[in-house]
Amino acid sequence: MCMDVYRLEFLENLDIVSIFSSEGEKVAFSSAISTSAARGAVEKWLLEVQENMIMSVRDVIAKARDVRQENRACRICTCLKYEWCLL
User: Fold this and answer.
1) pLDDT(31) > 60
2) Domain containing 17: what range?
3) Considering the entire predicted model, what is its pTM?
């Protein structure tokens, strides 16, 4: 998976909590990445960024799909009530 990562958002303790694209889109990580746990090994936390990025994007897509299905169910219910009222 390739994604245009423009920058990372770090907390004061240097945990990474989200990524930004060059277009300004932000994806918050499902769980923070501790750079201090890598003990200076940049390659280690960069791999975690990649894994967390994929997982977090999947989570965002799943939440959007769930909301869309809920909204669709509400629209169907509203339409059915509306048709029933017209009868």
Assistant:
1) yes
2) 7-86
3) 0.67
